[in-house]
Amino acid sequence: MPDETTVTEPARSGDALLFARNFFRHPRMLGSIVPSSRFLIRQLLEPINWNRARVIVEYGPGVGNFTTEVLRQMRSDAVLIAIEMNPEFVRYLRATISDPRLHLVQGSAAEVDCVLRRLGVTRADYIISGIPFSTIAAGERDTILRKTVEVLEPGGAFLLYQFSKRIMAELQRVFGYVGRQFQPLNVLPAYLFICQVTAD
Which of 10, 124, 142, 196 could tie 57 with a disulfide, CB 3.0–4.6 Å? Predict the structure, then answer.
């Protein structure tokens, strides 16, 4: 896969400190004190068919651990739309990642449909997420999940990781298929969910 991404220094050397500082400021927004491990990143992205994926959305890119790996693997004509609420992370990503395929938007995952429309996109092939759903209010959580279903292409998937299994029942109510995996080599150990809409 072509690698058009430029990651400037001290991007990867300072991201852990930035992430930890924001965890103490906004623990309910992050859920973990350190960024995701390479094992978790590899496992969560494994289901993606990179030849098929033209539009990928990321909820809560944080300091860009998943973002840079997605950009590394995806097609040269694909786009990655990253939606991040934290303005400090948005500034950091804009300063450290230079790739014309990345569209970074400051906002909420609950606005994913509006974000896609503004960018002239109707559907996403894959949506990846690490936002901690257990700390999000029930109404907003439901909105995010239902809008995620609405903007997914048929055959697409919602790939997310969480630090508990509590979201499983809600995912099953919204998606036709939900697979679950586990990755112990992460701080904290994480549950991974692969969600798809099944045909009626």
Answer: 124
